[in-house]
Design a protein that fits this description.
This protein has 260 residues and is of the alpha/beta class. Helix content is 52%, strand content 11%. The chain has twelve helices and eight strands. The structure holds ligand PTJ.
Length: 260
């Protein structure tokens, strides 16, 4: 194993890759997850590998929405488990949410491994193993959830979700918070609160906002939700990509160098 020097310009990106690779080796992340990560990285590069102010506003709105929810659930797949297991557990604790393993390429074996991995990172109860509920409109493999988990939830956080499931969850009337680096993807476009940011930065920032808002007035929590506009946030991320993609060295975006 090569140690990545912390001052390497692409330190965060290389660390992220290493975590995904380790996830595949442990049987937590699917091989498709490697491809998904590559796609995400390309968008992160174009966004400047930072949390846009519009994404920060989405993260604050997400925190307020989770605090207000009766039954919030954080959905975890193979990429989330590899990239941010401890951070996901912390967010669940900060907002009083359930954690449910819900996979695109479902195997019982991987659900169990991810649940174990989350418990190793401090989760005490992990849902997704009962598989006694469903999302109407999806075939069995894609639509299986826990009856007392995602099926019963009023607010769901679905990071890196596929478009069909995002739409089916929306049709069930759930308030959806989607974390996805691609502002053109169907899932964030379906979401009530699209967070166009890297999962690695987004999850801890939602937790930080939740801790801040937990001590704030109910008016402050309401304002975090009311002042957020999903369409404007998506448009801002898209404009940032279009304008910043091939910026001149004068307004160079961070993380310009290629790995190696
Ligand atoms: O573990 P499973 O079986 O549930 O599978 C999970 C993946 C992610 C492999 C599966 O859902 C999948 O194939 O997803 P897609 O269709 O490739 O979509 C992944 C989306 O997440 C893309 O829009 C990427 O831009 C985005 N993405 C990838 N990595 C990150 C990300 N968004 C935020 N943070 C990331 N680190």
């Amino acid at each position: 194993e090569t140690e990545i020097p912390e001052d390497h310009p692409r330190y965060a990106s290389l660390l992220t890759r290493h975590r995904i690779e380790a996830g595949v080796e442990k049987g937590i992340t699917s091989k498709q997850g490697l491809i998904a990560q590559g796609r995400g990285e390309a968008f992160d590069y174009l966004l400047g590998e930072r949390t846009l102010p519009s994404a920060d506003a989405a993260e604050r709105a997400a925190a307020a929405t989770l605090l207000r929810a009766n039954h919030p659930v954080l959905s975890v797949n193979g990429n989330v488990a590899a990239l941010a297991p401890g951070e996901t557990v912390e967010l669940a604790e900060a907002v009083g949410a359930d954690i449910e393993v819900n996979l695109f390429n479902h195997t019982d074996e991987r659900v169990r491994r991810i649940a174990d991995h989350l418990r190793e990172h401090g989760a005490d109860d992990v849902k997704g193993l009962a598989a006694d509920g469903d999302i109407p409109g999806l075939d069995h493999a894609r639509g299986t959830v826990d009856a007392d988990g995602i099926e019963a939830a009023d607010v769901v956080v679905v990071p890196l979700e596929d478009g069909d499931r995002a739409e089916a969850l929306d049709a069930m009337g759930k308030t959806e918070i989607v974390i996805d680096l691609n502002p053109g993807s169907r899932s964030p476009r379906t979401a009530d609160i699209p967070i166009i940011d890297n999962l690695i930065r987004a999850v801890p920032n939602v937790t930080a906002h939740a801790r801040d808002l937990a001590d704030a007035s109910s008016a402050a929590r309401r304002d975090a939700i009311d002042s957020f506009a999903a369409d404007a946030a998506l448009a801002d991320a898209e404009a940032t990509i279009r304008e910043g993609a091939f910026a001149t060295p004068d307004d160079e975006i961070p993380g310009e160098e290629t790995p190696g």
